[in-house]
Every structure is written in structure tokens, then in C-alpha cells.
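User: Can you write out an input/output pair for a complex, sequences first and structure second?

Assistant: Here is one pair. Inputs:
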Amino acid sequence: MDISKDLMAASSTPIVLAILAEEDSYGYAILQRVRELSGGKMEWTDGMLYPVLHRLERLGHVKARWETADTGRKRKYYRITPPGRAQLVEDRKQWQAVDATLRGIWKAISISNPVGHLAPGIPISQGA
Amino acid sequence: MDGSVHGISLEDQIAQWRSYLNRRQAIHSVDVAELEDHLREQVEGLTSAGLATDEAFLVAVKRMGDLDTLSREFAREHSDRLWKQLVVSSSDTGGVAPAVRKDALVALSFAVLAGIAVKVGIELDLANSVYVRNMSFVVLPMVAGYFAWKRQLQPRLLVVLGVVIGGAMVFANVYPHVPEGSTEILTAIHLPIALWLAVGIAYAGHRWRQGGGRMDFIRFTGELLIYYVLIAIGGGVLTAFMAMIFQVIGVDMEPFFEAWMPSMVVGAVIVATWLVEAKQSVIENMAPVLTRLFTPLVTAVLLGFLATLLWTGRGINIERDALLAFDALLILVLALLLYSISARDAAKPAGAFDVLQVVLVASALAANAFALWAIAARITEWGLTPNRVAVLGVNVILLINLAWSAVLYVRFLRGSGSFSTLEKWQTDYLPVYGAWAALVVIVFPPLFGYR
């Protein structure tokens, strides 16, 4: 399943912030976690995560630091900041509102109209 | 790319990928380091899952995303990076910063040294003619010294530099010039030109015999001039500002300026040198941009001049110094030609701008021909003073340079010659100017009896 670009862009911020709220992390591990959480349904292009992280850093939602990993390589770790947590709370409220709305509408249409195909007999307008 | 990766080590592949990323303006080296760590971990993950190294590399690169899109995303987040910034203190990569700082410190030391040399010279209160002859020695050897340090010149080249500068000092000072006579002034004018080519040796290092090294020196010279002018304007504004605010509290800054201005003026040359060096890969070159702007304008002026000349039938009003104006014209045209050549990709096919260049050179040559023709008839009548010979000599040298350039350019336009031939002609011709300047300094004074 391909998730649309717009939806990806809109959801990336809360997802990244939420993962960082669990613990400090770095790019590769964040992507692994996204894959794990979505059951492989959300496939980000790896490189695109970094501009998102940099934007969050600029906004002060996360703070970056360089550390030497066990492999001996230098690695950039990100930590969520208090403003970042506040943002996450706010994002969560918004997404819950969106989610609640969609749930309501899914329920309503699934009664009269099963998802996946149109009810027969509905005339398709020919476009005047 | 698929076929070529076999047999290349992972490190080589990563290095190549890194160099692709480094070329992207919006992606800084810190980000490249971050992305590289990601790539390596991805490769490790994939190989432990059973993929061969080169396959793992390909998959990892693919997952990283298309470079153009990636670079665009970075540019959207870091839009400031599209304005190339000259950051002297390098960002949080570490590593680079100490080298940059050391470079700046050395340049500053040379600038201070030049400033002190000027100050000492002034305090010594020597005869006017000593200053006139030795002006070039306070700054140009410092510039050469900075490059000698920066390029870590081989001892052989250091000896060459020492001989050139030492020889110049000897010839500038041993001749019994008549104070403020023509040959002394000519020496003062030509010495910096000869020494500037010595600076070129220091600048280009072991590449000074190659066209590429010389072309880099030409580029450097143009940028230096522009930077120096900018610094001078900034200095002027600062000076005026200082004078203004100190006047408010009743302090006259005039004596301070008088005491230190010459040192500042000289030190700024070294600072400008260092700036050009530091920024050469960071900021677009300015000289070619100005060239683009002014080539059409100068061409229009020259064509207008020629048309008026022919239309009104006026002879050139030959005064004694008329040729000097035409020397200046040829120098201007040569500079326009040189800096558009310096920025042009030799492999590109001829375009409209190339035609314009030829028109520019041809019209300059035509205008100069009128002047030369009018003057040649009368130069013997006025007598061969050192000034006139010098001006005539420069004119002839420039004429040869430009005329042959025009021939080569036309050949290139007609497809019977390559652009690199023209480029090579320009860089090969460079030492002629140095030789002429040296000739004026060394041979003219005895030839004309030091008057």
C-alpha cells in the first residue's frame, strides 16, 4: 500500500517526535522503528527523514548531538525538548480529532455501502 | 551504474557517493556525514540479512532516495544555503576549523607585517624617490610570502622567487635616477607588474608553467581587484563614520588617519588575497559576471566611436599622450576577453556571446589602428622620450596579443580551431608582459640616461 505524499509529509512530524519521546535516537534507528510500528506499511525514502529532523531542530523541538557509536563512527543523535513534547501533545490532539472524524464517517458509510465497490444502480453523471 | 560496481570496494563506492553528495550545495558536509552513517548502517543491516556487499550498497543508495529530490528537500529546509555564504569559522564538523583559523592567522600576520613595513618606511622619513622606487616591495613580497607558505613551495621555486624579488630590489635602487624623472616614474609603474608575475609563480606553485595554473592566477587577480575595491569602499565608509562620531565628542581623527591609513591600505591587499583564497570555492566568481555585463556595453561604445570617426571624417586629434588612452582601451578589452575566457567551458560550442567578443576585439583593434597610424607619423618628430617608447611598446604588445586572439577566435567560430588554443595563447602570452615590465625597469634607465 502506498501512502500518499501529502499524508506522509503531514504525519512525519508527530511520528518522529513520538519515537523520540520514547528515547533518544538517530536517523537509521528512527526509520527502523517506523517500519516496525507500521508493519512495513509506511516506507519513507530514507534521505527524506533528515530534512524533517533538521526542521524540527530549527524549530527547537529536538536537539542534536554528535556521539561516537559502538562501531567507532560518529553518529548524530536527536533528543526531544520540552517544546517538542508540548508540540507532540498538540499534534496528538489534532490527529485524534481527525481520526475520530474519519472513524465516524467510516462507520456511517460501511452500513449502507461496503468499502471497495459502488452500489449498483447509482447513475453516474455524464457531465453536462 | 549496476555493472560498474563489481570489483570496486565498498569504501570506494561510498567515497564516490559521498563526493556526489558533497557537490550538492544545499547539503553540507555535516549532513553528508550524517547520511553516510545511515548508509553504512543500512549496508551492514542488509549484508547481515544475506545480501552481497555491492548489492547491499545499491539497495541502500536506492532507499536513500534520488539525489536531486534529496537535495531539493534539503534546500527547502535550508534555503539560506542557496546563498553561498563565506563562513570563516566552519560549522560543527570540527576538523576543518583549525586549518581555516591558522590560514586566517597567517594571512593576518602578513598583513600586519606589511602594515608595519609601511609605517617604518614613513617614520624613517626618507627621500621621496626612495618611496617611489620601493613602493611595490612593501606589499607584493608579502603576498608572495603568503602563497609560498600556503602552497608549501619547493625550495627550487623559493630560490626563483628570492632571485626575482631580490633582483628587482637591486635594479630599483642602484640606478642613479634623476629624482622624479621619467625613468624613475616608469620604474615605479612597471616594477609592480613584473613583481605581480612573480606573485603568480608563488600562487600557481609548480603549476606556473601550465596553462591551468596561469589561468587560475588570472582568475585570482580579477577577484582580488574586486575584493580590494569592496574593502576600500567599506574602509572609506568606516573612516567617514569614525571621523563623524569622534567629531561629536570634539576629537579630531585626522592625525590618526594620516598616521595609519597607508598601513591599512597596504594591509588590506593581503586581507583581500586571503579572502579570495578562502572563498574561491564558496562564492561565485565576480569578474566573469562583470565581463558579461560590460562586454556588450564596451562593444557598443567602440562601434559608436568608429562610426562617428568615419562619419564625421575627423582625424584623431593627436596630442602627445593620446596613445595612453588607447593603451588603456586595449587593456580594458583584453581584460574583458581574458575574464570571459577564464569562465568559459572550452568544450562548449560557439555562441552569440563569442561573436560579440570577436566584434569587441576587432573594433578595439580598428580604433587602435587609427591612433597608431596617426601617431607613428609624428612620433619621430616629437622625439623618443622614455614615456613615449614605453607607451608605444605596451601598445604593440597588447596589439599582438589581441590581434592573434582575434584570429584564433575567428578560427574557433568557423569551426577550424578549438577554444583551448585561444586559452593557451592567452596563458602563454602572460610572461611577455612581465618581460616587458622587467625590460622597462632594467634597460630603460641606462638607455635614456636616467632622466
